């Protein structure tokens, strides 16, 4: 007789803490637990990623494998299409339940529907739990009458009416569980890796000097999380909050948790409640907790909800929430941007860091995305989204595309606001007046006096020669004149605004102001811009 198993299928929620799927797979059952990770070679992470991100993911899986090894068990790392894998497994064991965390982004829909259909036809119970978000994005949409809340403020309104997110699931002691693992001889027709593979074994190779700062894995993420909570507490004691945003530090090792949230080695609920509880502990009885202290997590949630039923969310033309902007197509400009040779050291530094470390501070992401789109180059945000998707270790489909649409003024409530841009000659100076970030990433300009680091072409030629940085020879001249480019882009955006006002009824619904205040703001912006 075949052994009965419940399968815990790890996808993005690569952790054991706050794991509802683990609870499902082990509650009230005689079946043993079989733990799987499937590398399919088809999904976005396996197609569009570079070395750093794949390495981060594999480190996360390896960490799970090590935790299981401590209790004498094993994680099965199998290559192949998930339905094929489950079909082959179902011939070796009797699968009672398949448990996994919800991936609400439509990019996973085809895979998940195929697996669910397979399970239905093989009488396998499917248990899908919300693990990547604070609330179930689909429930938020339902609570809002079947469409996503149109703006961030509306989003907050709806989620408040739904009550606070659930508390994290209690921990389960792995040592108390009964596991099932295959012996090697049974696994013949499955492509199983006996150890977690390296990126090279999966066909990913370094293309330059890739060297990420973050190591993946739940164990490290939890240590990092504790340090981060202490950091947030210090801010609360100082009567402040969001310290990462308040004092941006683009030079020190980052304190970010976003790669851990992206791969789910840290639970977003665990972080949310740690921050809320810490605030309550410090400000006992004072103003009640508000979304303000976790606003970035709420933005993350907002983008997840926005993408949930929208398969074209990461595109411009077919995307119902995105304005169709007549961006330029200029491969030469794109190549200069992508190779970090724009002639603007702050921008080039960012692109070079991204390729080497797979990481950028939010400030730098803002600078790059603004420069590529409505700030300077007027190139389509979709190409920027793809560059970030390829290199960022925390690349998150919902959040990445959402931010590109936001910065490029293509969607959401600030869509038609074109009152400012970031100046690549000035923006970085405020945060890094001595240009240390540029010196680190753009060695060509490193010997220039500090006042010229952000705009090397403004240095007198003798100063350039003295610093071995003659612009046009040792380092490129700026690819566009920022002032002229911004004036031109601004005009194009204004023209677009006007044409949208004329055809307001046809404007995408998500960019239509949703309440009186927003209508007032909208017309104020338009009037100011055109005067
Ligand atoms: C063009 C562009 C692309 C981006 N792409 C991604 C991406 O692919 N993945 C990603 O996680 N973040 C992305 N961000 C958002 C942001 O830059 C990172 O989440 C942030 O740098 C993480 O640092 P932190 O953990 O210190 O953030 P904190 O400010 O401490 O925020 C805590 C968490 O909230 C979430 N968060 C923070 N900022 C945002 C935001 N603007 N929108 C939505 N969620 C947010 C992240 O999960 C983050 O870890 C992008 C931003 C821009 C401008």
Describe the secondary-structure layout.
Blueprint: E1 4-10, H1 20-26, E2 32-39, H2 44-48, H3 51-70, E3 76-79, H4 82-90, E4 94-101, H5 109-121, E5 125-129, H6 137-143, H7 152-162, E6 191-193, H8 218-237, H9 243-246, H10 258-262, H11 268-282, H12 295-307, H13 331-338, H14 345-357, H15 362-375, H16 381-391, H17 397-407, H18 427-431, H19 436-441, H20 461-466, H21 482-502, H22 516-530
Helix pairs in contact: 4-5, 6-12, 8-11, 12-17, 14-15, 16-17
Walk me through what this model shows.
The chain has 531 residues and is α/β, with parallel strands linked by helices. It folds into 3 domains: 1-130, 3-Layer(aba) Sandwich (Rossmann fold); 133-169 and 218-311, Serine Threonine Protein Phosphatase 5, Tetratricopeptide repeat, CATH 1.25.40; 331-530, DNA Cyclobutane Dipyrimidine Photolyase, subunit A, domain 3, CATH 1.10.579. The chain is 45% helix and 7% strand. It has helices at residues 20-26, 44-48, 51-70, 82-90, 109-121, 137-143, 152-162, 218-237, 243-246, 258-262, 268-282, 295-307, 331-338, 345-357, 362-375, 381-391, 397-407, 427-431, 436-441, 461-466, 482-502, 516-530, and strands at 4-10, 32-39, 76-79, 94-101, 125-129, 191-193. The protein has a 6-stranded mixed β-sheet, with helices on both faces. Strand 1, helix 1 and strand 2 form a beta-alpha-beta unit. Mean pLDDT is 91; it is low at 525-531. The structure holds flavin-adenine dinucleotide.
